[in-house]
Amino acid sequence: MKLQTDKIKAYKTGAIAWVEFNDPQKHNAISMDMAEAIPIAVKNFEDDDTVRVIVLRGAGERAFAAGSNISTFGAVRNSIDQNRHYHKVNELAYDAFYLCSKPTIAMISGYCIGGGLDFATSCDIRICSSTAVFSVPAGRLGVGYGYEGVMRLNRIVGPSKGRDIFFSARRYDAQQALAMGLVHEVVAQESLLQHTTAYAEQTAALAPLTLKAIKQAYLCLEKHARETDMSAAQALIDDCFDSADYQEGRAAFAEKRPPLFKGK
């Protein structure tokens, strides 16, 4: 499939479709053009009757996706209005997997950080290698983390573990992720592709209309949370992007030093 950016690859192997973050030199950090390409790729596979399951992966072994491309924030995420547009683009990308009528699988190797974790939690199934590392470092950057992402994570690990992930901003290894239910399986790095492919093939052999009905049932179960009025949460998210702390978080990241936040 030809997309507007070569940093997203989309291809098929039999009944399995693959969407791949393809910027390994930047640990597959997700840029706006990558986020914009994803709904196009997923919709194409969703409309293809020969595709039964979609797998999301990152190029190479070092990273699934190491979050958003922070180096571009000055150009695309430097005000409340810019952030709302940025957020809308990324939510469409997350929802491409979350709302997809076909089963989706995240194959996770290495870093699965921030927005990368948001993509992983948008998928139905998460299989990771023993090298996987998980984190949501929003608190270290001063960014306002979208409430939809909080909901996606919460539905998997629950509010107790979710608070720990967000409030500590610490990193979790593969076994810790398995213990909290964040991933379904942990396999050796050298077996990850083979194991994930076998899982996808097993899923692809099942009755597609049955799986579609089950997927819709889960979406209905989670519908209430997505429709909750979050205007108060959005106002606080906007405050983050209008703060000196956000500027300090970006500067500290660029200068590779600890941030000094003042709550202003």
Can you give a write-up of this model?
The chain is of the alpha/beta class and 264 residues long. Helix content is 50%, strand content 16%. Strand 2, helix 1 and strand 3 form a beta-alpha-beta unit. The N and C termini lie far apart (46 Å).
Percent in helix: 40-55%
Radius of gyration: 18 Å
Beta-strand share of residues: 15-25%
Which stretches are low in confidence, meaning pLDDT under 50 for 5 or more residues running? none
Q: Kindly state the mean pLDDT as a whole number?
A: 88
Q: Determine the number of helices (DSSP H or I, runs of at least 4 residues).
A: 12
CATH homology-level superfamily of one domain: 2-enoyl-CoA Hydratase, Chain A, domain 1
Distance between the termini: 46 Å
In the sheet with the most strands, the strands line up as 1-2-3-5-7-10
Order of helices and strands: EEHEEHHEEHEEHHEHEHHHHH
At the third CATH level, what is the topology name of one domain? 2-enoyl-CoA Hydratase, Chain A, domain 1
Q: Rough shape?
A: globular
Largest sheet: 6 strands, mixed
